[in-house]
Specification:
- It is built from twelve helices and six strands.
- β3 and β4 form a beta hairpin.
- With about 280 residues, it is of the alpha/beta class.
- The strands form two sheets. A four-stranded mixed beta sheet has the order 1-2-4-3, covered by helices on one side.
Length: about 280
């Protein structure tokens, strides 16, 4: 996986126009534009898929609203701050890139190609991921910022992995989401930080994840004799004697592991001897 961080005027302006207003001044200016240029404003809304197909070479059918937003008194400062945020993300990615690629390859065992990260102001507090044919390349529109570099890294990686899995086994999305959390928010985060993060994630998925957890350790290649050590590390306890050690799991990829969980869910989900310390 590789990430390319880009700031694009049209992407930034579109999100400023059609996401929640980030300030009272922006809100008033948007209202003024709407009242004076309703037709052009509506036409701009339908541009987004065209922009995402090729942001660098996008040419608007009508650039009236875009030009007026660029003339807005606060736009220059807003774009400058967005550029600074992009630089922050580039430095963060440079710092963690090598380890991220190595760990994700080991955990996921699937090929994730380059993603273009379209950086917008984090004041918008939103992130969306699109894939071909909507865009020419895999694209993450990123408009959110967390307190630490690691938290930002986790957010980006998790958004990408969720999108990679979005169309996989749609009838079993709870299991897909649980495995995605185990992969990124739990195991990947644990490796990056050096501390167990297995109690992190969506509260509604916690019980499901504890039920999958013994098989997840087998998938990671944890030897049977080491399972207790990992249980202590992650503060999740199960009776090893009640589980058949599925050694073939260490050789499969994430998709195949999800398939395994789905096919064996009646057995996996009926086990209730697990507990979180």
């Amino acid at each position: 996986m590789n990430l390319k961080f880009v700031v694009n005027d049209y992407v930034l302006i579109w999100n400023l126009l059609f996401q929640a207003s980030i300030s009272e001044n922006i809100h008033r200016y948007k209202q003024k534009l709407w009242q004076s240029y309703k037709k052009e404003y509506n036409l701009t809304y339908s541009d987004y898929e065209l922009i995402l197909k090729d942001p660098k070479n996008f040419i608007p059918r009508d650039d009236t609203v875009y030009n007026l937003m660029m003339d807005y008194s606060g736009y220059k400062d807003l774009k400058k701050a967005t550029e600074e945020y992009r630089v922050y993300l580039v430095k963060m990615w440079d710092k963690y890139k090598k380890q991220t690629i190595k760990e994700l390859k080991d955990i996921l065992r699937i090929d994730i190609k380059q993603y273009q990260v379209l950086v917008i102001t984090p004041k918008l507090k939103c992130s969306t991921v699109t894939k071909p044919p909507v865009s020419k390349v895999n694209t993450l529109t990123l408009g959110s910022k967390h307190k630490t570099e690691v938290a930002n890294l986790m957010h980006i990686v998790f958004e990408i992995i969720k999108r990679e899995l979005k169309d996989f086994k749609k009838d079993y999305q709870d299991i897909v989401k649980a495995v995605a959390e185990l992969a990124v928010l739990n195991e990947f985060a644990t490796r990056i930080t050096g501390k167990s993060k297995y109690l992190s994630g969506e509260e509604s998925l916690k019980f499901l994840k504890t039920q999958i957890y013994p098989y997840w350790l087998m998938y990671l290649g944890v030897k049977k004799d080491d399972l207790v050590k990992y249980m202590k590390r992650d503060k999740i306890v199960f009776d090893v004697s009640k589980y058949t050690y599925e050694k073939q799991l260490r050789k499969v990829d994430l998709y195949t592991f999800i398939d395994f969980c789905i096919k064996n869910q009646k057995h996996i989900l009926k086990i209730d001897e697990l507990e979180i310390i």
